[in-house]
Amino acid sequence: MSNVLPSYLKEASPNSMENRAPWYKNTAPSYAGIFISVPFMAGMAGALAYGSVNAAVIGLILGSLFCFLIYYVPGILGFKTGMPLYVVGSSTFGTKGGILMPGLLMGVLQIGWHAVFTFTATSFFMKAIGSNAEAGSLLFWIVAAVWGLILAFVGATGIGLLGAISSWVPLAPLIVIIIAGFSNLDGISKFSDVMSGFNSFGSAVPVMGIAAFAAFQSAAGFFATAGAAGADFTCNSRSEKDVVMGGLVGITIAALVAGIFGIMTMAGAIGNNPELAVHAGSGTFAAFIESIGTVSGLSKIMYWVFVIACVCPTGFCAFLAANAFATMFPKIPSKPMTLVSGGIGVVLAATGLAANLVGFFGIIGASFGPILGAMFADYIRSRGWNGPREGVNWAGYIAWACGFVVGILGVIPGIGFAYGLETLMSFIVGFAVYLLAAGMGCEPKTVPLEN
């Protein structure tokens, strides 16, 4: 039977209980570090372009709970099997089908994340040195290239160093965003009045795109890949309690803290400085950067803190992208591929393509929402995990295709429309279609793992 399995499954072995640790030593801090990041806080603040502070907070609360939901099944599978996403996903998509999804798709999207963090770090660096250089300019290209390629190299050769500092580096931006939020607190009450008089703001609202939906989508789209990777985190968990507590603290609570202070910072900044309202509709990064700049006396320090906060995720994303490709195709050398991934990320960042957080989060949600929905349905139907399925599991691919079409509507200009719940709907469609397709016989038989 060994000749049926691709190499990524032949070589898979579970993480033993001796190597596992409590939730507060692995899952919770790792996920908290993901949420306490500039892209998430900027994305949440960007939801204010579509409505009130209260609506954005409601959407954030619901979104943070949804993030826990989509993490739970991969998390339980990782704990029970001791295997990463690539292995547990082979049930939903098949031994051969799992190579493309979630395998290579995860790698492609990690390149996108490398670009987002490179763009973020470069943008804040420009503010820190007092430069007005923007994406596409020579200076922006130089800084983005130096940042992205050096950290891709670190990801290829010193990932252990990044892991060692990743547990405490997120504390700095957390402290900064709390200071910024309270510094702009007195302006929050003026926010609604300012935005009500901003005419172009109202015309930018997509169909049903109220702030609650926008905040929900920002959280869900931001987290979709990390939710699918729950198995990679929880194969280090000792018990189901570790899975639950790690998710509640590291995902739900961390998202609420980072998101609320991100919303407070931007809303207060706009309330106190009405001229910043234009940034709410023109670009999430611009809005967030300008809102940080309103904190008098500390803005330069805050800019540098956010630059430093991008060190670990930039290196990790290049490493994870290359690791996805190398896992699926072991003959591809991992270190050169990490640098190639970093180079592609640099181009996306320096040209400004990585600045569109709304579009990027939409692509992530549309891509991984149905993957998570299909995995959820497979888990319920199989009452757990029974092993990889032979070849291509067409139930999973059909579910993904249907969910992707539903989820991508808000991203394609001139074709579909944004309605703010794309990731949620793609998850639901993926879940329902998988159950339907599997019930019609599109689900192949399982094959055993040697290890």
TrEMBL record:
InterPro entries: CodB, Pur-cyt_permease. One of its GO terms (cellular component) is plasma membrane. Keywords: Membrane, Transmembrane, Transmembrane helix. Pfam families: Transp_cyt_pur. The chain crosses the membrane at residues 31-50, 57-79, 99-126, 138-165, 201-223, 243-264, 276-295, 301-325, 337-354, 360-380, 392-412, 418-437. It is found in: Membrane. One of its GO terms (molecular function) is cytosine transmembrane transporter activity. It is a multi-pass membrane protein. PANTHER family: CYTOSINE PERMEASE, CYTOSINE TRANSPORTER CODB. Belongs to the purine-cytosine permease (2.A.39) family. This is Cytosine permease. It comes from Limihaloglobus sulfuriphilus.
